[in-house]
Amino acid sequence: MDNTVKLSVIIPIYNEAEIIPELHLRLTKSVLKVTDNYELIFVNDGSKDNSLLTLMQLSEKDTKSYFINFSRNFGHQIAVTAGLDACKGEAIVIIDGDLQDPPELIPLLHKKYEEGFEVVYAKRNKRKGETFFKKVTAKLFYRTLKRMTTTEIPVDTGDFRLIDKKVVSYLKAMPEQNKFLRGQIAWLGFKQTHLLYDRDSRKSGETGYSISKMFQFAMDGITGFSDTPLKFVTRLGFLISFVAFLVILYAIYSHYILNETITGWTSLFISVMFMGGIQLISIGIIGEYISRINKNVLNRPLYIIENSNIKKE
After folding, report:
1. In whole angstroms, what is the distance from residue 46 CA to residue 48 CA?
2. Which of the two ends of the chain, N or C, has the fewest CB atoms closer than 10 A to its terminal CB?
3. Residue 229 · residue 144 · CB < 8 Å
4. Strand residues in 20-174 grouped as ranges (E)
């Protein structure tokens, strides 16, 4: 029996209990403009509010709504991955559950998909309700990543996009623990295009992305798709060694030719601190790559599902 549906929508949820009813209503209206053969997969990523209860009640009223409940918080990218593992759609939409990404854009994404594009991503034109710091750091990150990698990762985009099922099949074959899905999808290639949209502010609550999480997400993107930091460490080592060699030559010249011996605790202290800082940064960069290797070698499951109303085949 073929259980394939025309359109799957994957929605990671973290403390969005107040938003879920409106989110479900807007998603349903938008998806029905495309097809009535669809599924909505909500992935509860260890929410601390009543999100799970709301999703369970929703699934009892709507037979096209499904939920996956994690045993704890595993992170946004892992929640999306769980949805991709469970979905059955010919086309799959990934959208956040905070309503910053408008569900009304789904029919337009699908229209581009029908034109033959296998990846249609939503590109942010404006970002309402976000701090100046977040806008600047996000802009800096995407442009830095673009310079550091040969993979054409679109700038000013999140995970809000529509992808073909063949893209999902390849994503499932990419086993790395540190997921950076927008980079993985770009790396796969296929025929891609974008739609411009204005991102709304959050309807309620606060973002689940703290500064530390954003930093780790950025590190996952950089270390997953570029070896430039490692090359930088190597070149920096050669540069410092060359400068140190010149200083040694100057010290010898000063002592034997000019009869002036270089002295001073301040210069020595500054040199030691500088070299120590460079060494720690270098070790930290190398450690990030080793950490990725370690996580993949351990081969632990990406997530643990506590309960779900999706039947296993």
Report:
1. 6
2. N
3. no
4. 38-44, 65-70, 89-94, 119-127, 157-164
Residue 278 C-alpha from the chain's centroid: 28
Q: Kindly report the number of other CB atoms within 10 A of residue 30's CB atom.
A: 21
pLDDT tens, position by position, 65-114: 999 999 888 888 889 999 998 899 899 999 988 888 889 999 999 999 88
Taking the CA atoms of residue 41, residue 46, residue 47 and residue 50 in that order, the dihedral angle to the nearest 10 degrees is 80
- Cβ-count burial of 155 within 10 angstroms (0-12 exposed, 13-18 middle, 19+ buried)? middle
* pLDDT for residue 1: 43
> Is 6:37 a contact under the CB 8 Å cutoff?
yes
C-alpha to C-alpha distance for 149 and 163, rounded to whole angstroms: 22
pLDDT, tens digit, 9 for 90 and up, residues 46-59: 888 898 999 999 98
Fold classification of 5-207+301-308 is Spore Coat Polysaccharide Biosynthesis Protein SpsA; Chain A (3.90.550)
pLDDT at 261 over 90: no
Nearest in space to 156 (alpha carbons), one of 96, 214, 109, 196: 196
Question: Phi and psi for 75 in degrees, rounded to 5?
Answer: 110, 155
Q: pTM of the prediction?
A: 0.70
Higher pLDDT, 228 or 171: 171
d(CA 311, CA 65): 13
Distance CA 204, CA 15 (A): 10
8 Å CB contact between 99 and 191: no
At residue 22, the 3 state secondary structure works out as helix
For the stretch 133-155, pLDDT in tens is 666 766 676 666 666 666 676 76
Which amino acid does the sequence have at 242? F
In the prediction, which pLDDT does 44 show?
92
Cα 14 to Cα 52: distance, rounded to the nearest angstrom: 9
